[in-house]
Design brief:
The chain is α/β, with parallel strands linked by helices and 313 residues long. It folds into 3 domains: 77 residues, Orthogonal Bundle (Arc Repressor Mutant, subunit A), CATH 1.10.10; 99 residues, D-Maltodextrin-Binding Protein, domain 2 (3-Layer(aba) Sandwich); 114 residues, D-Maltodextrin-Binding Protein, domain 2. Helices cover 42% and strands 19% of the residues. It contains 11 helices and 13 strands. Strand 8, helix 8 and strand 9 form a beta-alpha-beta unit.
């Protein structure tokens, strides 16, 4: 028996069929007819000299030989796909696909990106607003911005300064709830998107920082996305704890105010991420420099606050 590899098309047909355990689904994925896929798999079995599948009435199962081949075939095609994408990403190109969370995309990127686009009319920007676990190869992303506690050691990573949050509300509500103590009776809005943090950055933590007993049993509206909580605050529904990048446009344009100069510093921050080596491409380097500069434009607001690290509470 020879170790000479069979044709790549036959191995590709096998890998898809083994993954789906269905010739029909594999044929659909590869955009070929079931007959063509069956022919490729039969040629692979002839090359091996042994069946790879047990054909049942409406399904297929892997033989012992098929089970031995399937993991390596999948790993091989995944490695080829990753290598091809890496090769493409070394080329100079004018399209950038950016992945960021829905809140940052809606409240920070979208309102500001016009300035970057105007300064770089040759770069086409595409956005993917998601909090899905980062995978540059699977998602075909050039740049990602993620809010996290841990460093991303396998990627090129630029952290910005630690973030903080503070109560925000409409000017009208601020007239009613004019002191930190009055928030005990205020309709509070809860941002559950921060629940992953080791040190809770929530209303009980802010009340502890303000040295005010948190009203146990306090209820309010909960939001899974930070931008939804801020939108509710803009609508006058209640008082939210807002992160600096997410709230600044609404604050600077007068829709929200930050009446209490006390903020919680989180042990997490935003990271600008790309594949190692890709940071030298002109488009990614330009976006990185713009991102850092834009974040720093509102850094002076920190000087107005007593900022309490949540880890000390």
């Amino acid at each position: 028996m020879t170790d000479r590899l069979p044709p790549l098309t036959a191995l590709r047909a096998f890998e898809a069929a083994a993954r789906h355990l269905s010739f029909a689904k594999a044929a659909s994925e590869l955009n070929v007819t079931p007959a063509a896929l069956s022919f490729q798999i039969k040629s692979l079995e002839d090359h091996l000299g042994h069946p790879l599948f047990v054909r049942l009435n409406r399904a297929v199962e892997l033989t012992t030989a098929g089970k031995a081949l399937a993991p390596g075939a999948s790993e091989g095609f995944n490695a080829l796909t990753a290598a091809w994408r890496s090769a493409r990403n070394t080329l100079s190109k004018n399209t950038l696909t950016i992945s960021a969370g829905p809140a940052l995309t809606a409240k920070w990127l979208a309102p500001r990106i016009f300035d970057f686009a105007r300064a770089h009319p040759d770069i086409e920007l595409r956005f993917s607003a998601t909090l899905r676990r980062l995978d540059f190869d699977r998602d075909d992303v050039d740049v990602a911005i993620r809010f996290a506690q841990e460093e991303f050691k396998s990627l090129y990573s630029v952290p910005v300064r630690n973030d903080w949050l503070t109560p925000v509300m409409t000017p009208k509500l601020a007239e009613v709830y004019s002191t930190p103590e009055s928030l005990i009776d205020a309709p509070l809005l809860y941002d559950d998107s921060l629940d992953f943090l080791e040190d809770a950055c929530d209303w009980p933590a802010w009340f502890r920082a303000a040295r005010i007993p948190y009203p146990e049993g306090k209820r309010g509206a909960h939001f899974s996305n930070a931008d939804h909580a801020i939108d509710a605050a803009v609508a006058g529904v209640g008082v939210a704890l807002g992160r600096r990048p997410i709230i600044m446009k609404d604050v600077m344009e007068g829709r929200l105010v930050m009446p209490f100069k006390l903020a919680l510093e989180m042990n997490a921050r935003f990271y600008f991420l790309c594949r190692k080596g890709a940071e030298t491409t002109p488009a990614i380097a330009a976006l990185r420099d713009w991102f850092i500069a834009e974040i720093e434009k509102t850094a002076h607001f920190s000087d107005e606050f007593e900022i309490v690290p949540v880890s000390t509470l």
